[in-house]
Amino acid sequence: MRRAAMLRVAFLLVCAMAAVSVTCGCGPVTAETPAAPPVVRIAPALDSVRARPGRGLVIRATGGTLSEVAAHTGGEPVPGRLDAERRVWRSDWTLKPGAEYDVTATATSPGGPATVLAGRFRTRPAGETFGLAATAPLPGETVGVGMPVILDFDRPIEDKAAVERALEVRSGSPAEGAWRWAGDTRVIYRTRRFWTPRQRVTVTAHLAGVHAADGVHGAVDSTFAFTVGRAQTSVVDTRTHRMTVERDGRTAQRMAISAGMATTREYTTTSGVHLTMDKGDPVRMISPGREKGDPGFYDLLIEHAVRISGSGEYIHAMDNVWAQGRRNVSHGCVNARPDQAAWFYANSLRGDPVTITGTVRELAWDNGWGFWQLTWERWIEGSALRTADAAGEMVSPG
Question: Where do the L,D-TPase catalytic domain residues begin and end (predicted)?
Answer without folding.
Answer: 232-357
